[in-house]
Structures are given as structure tokens and as C-alpha cells.
Amino acid sequence: MTEWLNVVVQGVLTGGLYAMFAVGLSLIFGVMRLVNIAHGDLIVLAAYVSLMVTQALGVDPLTSLVLVVPIMALVGYALQRGLLNFTLGEDLLPPLLVTFGLSVIIQNGLLELFTADSRKLQAGAIEVLTAQLMPGVWVGYLPLVQFAVAILVIAALQVLFYKTALGRAFRATSDDQPVAQLMGLNTRHVFALAMALSLAVVAIAGVFLAVRSNFDPAIGPARLIFGFEAVIIGGLGNMWGTLAGGVILGVAQAIGAELDPGWQLLAGHIAFLVILALRPQGLFPKVSG
Amino acid sequence: MADPLLDVRGIDVFYGDFQALFGVSLRIETGEVVAVIGANGAGKSTLLRSIAGLMHPRRGEIRLAGASITHSPAFEVVRRGVALVPEGRRLFPSLTVEENLLIGAQLKRPGPWTLARVYDLFPALAARRRLPATALSGGQQQMAAIGRALMANPRLLLCDEISLGLAPIVVRDIYAQIPRIVAEGLSLVIVEQDIAQALKAAARAYCLQEGRVALHGATRELTRETISAAYFGV
Amino acid sequence: MSRVEHASRSSRVGVALAGFGLAALAMAPLWADRATLRLLAEMFTYVALASLWNLLAGYAGLVSVGQQAFVGLGGYLLFALGIQFGVPPLAAVLVAGPVAALVSIPVALLIFRLRGAYFAIGTWVMAEVFRLMASQIAALGGGSGISLPASLVLAMAPTRQWRELEIYWLALALAVAVLVAIFVLLRSRHGLALTAVRDNELAAQSSGIDVRRLKFAVYVLTAFGTAMIGALIFLMKLRISPDTAFSVNDWTAFVIFIVVIGGIGRIEGPIIGTIVFFLLRQTLADLGSLYLMMMGTVAIAVMLAAPKGIWGLIVERLGWQMLPLQRRLVLEPSGKARAR
Lengths: 289, 234, 340
Description:
The structure holds 3 protein chains of 3 kinds. By secondary structure, chain A is mostly helical.
């Protein structure tokens, strides 16, 4: 019994990471209807940026966030202003194909710079610390911290979206671009800020990914898919729903892996497909107001 | 002579290959209320969209207080003090009434208009400030759209088809507030298909017909005959 | 006083040229060496894959990044049918089509619930599911893959040379069949509807086109063709593994590159794109990942600067069209008018 409880707890905590993959994706979809196929590769890019920062400065990965987050945010802003803004319009094809091309470029660029070798970031003592949740159920400090950070990130985004002028600008631009311009909003700048924010979250997700498990240049697409599945399971446009989506995905994968190591990913995909079949709007669709 | 507040000089505006405006010129002085009338498709909305910077003329020039805004993007034009109340209200549906007003003020142009003043002008909005914009009636939405534009503290307010789809009594209520708005020193351009309402509120009028200025003058000097000639081209 | 005409002078020349080229390719074993034939056959598979993806994305607006699902399914069907039931490879290639079409129906029912851009990622999830399932099948080598038994291969033809010729002609025939099928589809009433959907989905819907059904049909047809090509590809490779069969790079990234470069939404685009792709590959493939980065960059540049691709530029500049697909209203002088 406690064995299964352990499995579920691990799954829940991993789900926090998936939720972080997901919120960056759904944030830019919400603001500019852009689905960024390179999202997963950007997560991996952030992991490598953190690797470089930790190596260059000798700091631990979590401290490297101080630099990785702003670097990725800048990358996001530049990417949006310099490239992605030109793809936005009525036609779905340009943004999809351009971000797909971007994904190929990032993957192969990382391969060229860092080889296909598997890497991992060492977070030091915190990696081995565990706490007893209840008799027989142990959790690592690091997964707990990661889950707490996921909740904090989502809460912060929620506040930013609904309580600040920037969030208002995001929502207004998403509603009606020409009128947003009439209000003095430079929509290209607003989109770039949204992408910067998305990649700031990507940076956090990338560092936690790199601390929790091995990574190499090819693992991006799978992270995109996990994030996407969490978004759809939770329901479009609902950030807490996305957290729930990530948790469901994480638990499904953990249970699958417990049954048979080969079933880990498949179990997650099946959970996603079942929800798509039974409740295509997701478990917690946004209440339209 | 000092520059007029708005000076539109012979603009040609196109939608792709289709020319919507032919050498349209228009001048507006500070504190003036001017009506732009004309049949459906005469180019009234295109004129306002061009002034507001949502479209750009291929030829001609638009100057605001002497400085060219011909090719400025919309977000730049509103910074210089031109606000547009777009046709069909177009409030932001995912924002509350108050958030819609606040986003109008996000450039923080100094001036008389504040949330309190707008609520004072349109008390119906104050009671519904926390509601989503979609929960308002058509007339209240129009009030919110005007309030949102005022929050930018413009020098020039452009109103596109305020009365469209609204009950006459609601239209009268909204127009009744125009003197209070103008009293704050801004200039106003009213575009309407409903001629009577617009001519009553304005001192001068331009009549557009098929993309050209067919007539302009002081409203009290315009007769029904000259207007209908300019309106319908008969 | 008027009639609708498909052909223009350049397209009549184009059809003549295409016929001539086809004859030359059919007789290639007379003038080409083994390596060239292999290369040509591979090009034919890419022309077919790219044309099918073009139909899906360029005409039906279904941007899929998961067509590797059906390439791999076709490949695995070839191996499964051969190893389990002794089905001869050439027959298995033909059977792969209808089987994949059947499989694609429930797949489509699920992923058509996703709108627009999310549909794209949904197709990718499906391809992943297929890949993971393939690696669970121990009888087909699980995760490490399996070779096509020599007995099956040897039974195909008396000599190796004949076997290679059979495969070459099959590749040519399938590519031509795919092109002809797409051509006929686009010339039909449904083709007009598809073009309408591509240009304006909402307007097409309101003019009575059942957009969803049309897209569904295109998705299933594309799966049919893609799986046959997939089976053929792995008949050429003689070995299959989940990673090669469901490779997003080989069966989607390259295919998208080909279509974007050649000209999306045009039947000639994939042919031009394949030629460009293979020219680049023959000269630059040694660069490895740098080559792939370059490809991604070129695709992005074309998408932004010339979204209609090379063929689009040719059509715009010269008014050419190779295949008579366009409908033109021809006004005849009234003297010659026939009563209708």
C-alpha cells in the first residue's frame, strides 16, 4: 500500500515540473494564439545555459537561476521581436513552421556545441535530503522544493495576469489587437513581453529538469509534449487546471513506470488520450466571463 | 495663423487595390465639435481609422498641432492625444468595466479625466465597475467605450457611430453628456449615419460621398437640400 | 459565352514535359547505375511523402508534425505481415495502405478534437504513442528493431538486380500514383471545395461545404498513401526500429522543409522541393548537425520572405503552371459562342 502511495507522491511532485513546462506554453497561446513547437527545446536550452553558468561561476544550479532567468527572458524578447512577430496573422502555418524550424536549429546547435552526451546538474547536499511525509512515505527535499516553486510560479502568474497593468495589457491584446493599439499598447512589444515571461518560466523549468534528471540536446520535443498534455488535460486558459493536468500526467507516468518501466511514457499519453476522448475541453475549462 | 489641432491634407487611402478615400482634407480647431456624415460606405470610418493611425494614407498628410502623424502607428498617435471610440464599441470582453477604463488610461497622459470623473459622467458604469464588460447593455457599453477613450485624456476625441444599434432614448442620454465632455477643452469628431443627432451637436460638418468631401460648412448654414444632395449625390 | 478551362499554354508544355520525364525515369535502368537508381527511388518516396503532407497541410489546413506515425506504421506492417504471416513484401506494401487508413479513423476522431495549432502537437503525441507501442512488441524486435528475414527478400525476385529494379519501379509507380491521385482529387468537385477551405474556412462552411468531413477524408487518404510509402521505404532499408520508423526528423522535418522550399499549397512544389533538398543533401550532408541547422534557417527564411516557395516565385514571375489545375474563365468572342 505505502509502495503505491510513494509512487503517487513521486508522480504528483513530478507533475509540478510538467505544469511549469505547460504554463509557459499556454501563456503565449493565450496572449497571441501562438503554439511554440520549439518550447521543449528552449527548456533544454535553459538547462544548458544553467550548465554554462554553473561551470563558469562555480555556483550551484538553483543560484544560477539569478542569471538564467533574465538571460532566457531576453532571448524570448529578442526572438519575438526579431522573428516570431513576423509570423503572426490569420494563417496558422507560418508560426507553426517557423517554430518547428527553430526547434531543429536549437536541437542541432546544442548538439554541435555540447555533443549528444547526457548531462546532469549537481545541486549538492539538497539532492540527498529526504523528509518523511507519513510512515513509509518519503519524499526528497528537491522534488518538494520544485513542487513548491511550481505553485509559486503559477500563483505569481495568476496575480500578474489578473491584478497588474501588464496582465491587463496581455488580456486586452489577446482580446482585440487593433483596439489594444488604440489604447497606446504597442502589440509587438506586448507580445515580446509575453514571450519573455514565458521563457523566464522556461528557465526555471529547465534548471529543475536538469537537476532532477539527465538531459541531452534531443529531449526537448518530449518536454513540449508533456507540457502540451498538461495544458489539454487541465483545460485551456486555466492555470490551476494546468497544474492539475501536470499532476495527473505525472501520476499516470509514475504508475505506468511502476507496472513496467517501458510503460512510463505510454501511460502518460494514454491518460491524455482518455481525457481527450471523454472531456475534450479538459477537466477544468476556463469559465468564460 | 496658428496650426489647427488636426489638419488632414488631401489623403488617399486604400484597402489593397480598393481606394476608399480620394484627396480628403479636413481641419479641426481646438475645442471644436465637427460632424462627419455620409452614407454607408462613404469612407467615414476609414477617415477616422486613418487619423487614429490604424491605417495609413498612400498620399497626402495628417498633422496634429503642426506635427505630422501621417505614418505614426496607432499606439503612437494616442500618445500624442488622439483617442478613437471605435465603431461597435469593442470593449475588451475579458476585462471588467473598470479594467477597460484603466487600460484607456495606461499611457498616463495628464489631464482632467480620472476614473471618478468618468463614473460621475456615466453613473451607470460606477454601479457595474466590477462586472465583465460583456455584462453591460448596449448603451452602457457605449458609455464605457467613450469613458475608456476619455481616460487617455485626449486633445482630440474621434467617435465612430455612437448611436449605432442603440435605442433613441439611450442615444439622447449619451449625446446629452457631450457638452460636459467638450467643456474640458477637447475637440470632438462625430461620425454618424444618423444625421440629425450629429448636426445638432456639431458646429461644423463635413459630408463624405464615395470617398470624397462633397460638402462642408457650418451646420446652421447647411440646408436639408444641400445635405441630401451631398449625401446621395443627386 | 464563356467556359472554364484548366489548361494554359505553359501547362500543356508542362504536361508534355512531365510525360517525357516520366518515360525517361521509367527507362532509367537503361541509363543509370545502381547508386543512381537507389537515389532516384529515395527521391520518389520523398516526392510522395511531401505531396501527401502538402495535401494535408497546404490544402486541407491540417498541419501535422506527426506523419511519421503512418510512415512507421506502414514500415512495421511490412515486417509484421512478412514475419508473422509470410506475406510477400510487395503485397505487404499494398496492404499497408488500407490497414493504415482503418487505423487512422480512430486516430482522427481523437485528434480532430484539438483545434488549429494544438492539432499539430496532437499528431506528434500520436506518433509517439505509435513509437512506444512498436517498441513494446517483442516479436518485432522491441526497442532495438529487426531485419527483414532473408527468405522473404530472396523470394521477391530471382536475382538481386531484379529485386532492385522491382523496388525502383514500385517507388516510381507509387510516387506517380500519389501525384495522379492528388491531381484528380484537386481537379474534382472536392478539390474546389478544398481550395475554398484553404482560402477561407468560414466562408467555405457557410457556402455549404462540410469542412470537417472533407478534412477527415483527406486525413484518412493521406494516412493511406503515407503508410504505403512507409512500407516501401523500409523494404528499401530492410531493417526497422522504432526510432528510425517514427523519426520526426526523417519523415516530418525533411518533408516540411521540402514542401516549404518548393512551394506549399501547390502540386508542383514538392517535386521542386525534393530536387533542391537532395541537391543540398548530396553536397552538404557531411556537415551533420550544421547542415540541419542550415536547413532550418533556410526554411524559416523562405517561410517569411517567400511563403509560396520556389514554385510560387516562378508562377508569380513567369505566370507558368506545369500542371493544369487552375480554373480560368475563358470569354469567347460572341460570334463563336455555342448554344448551351
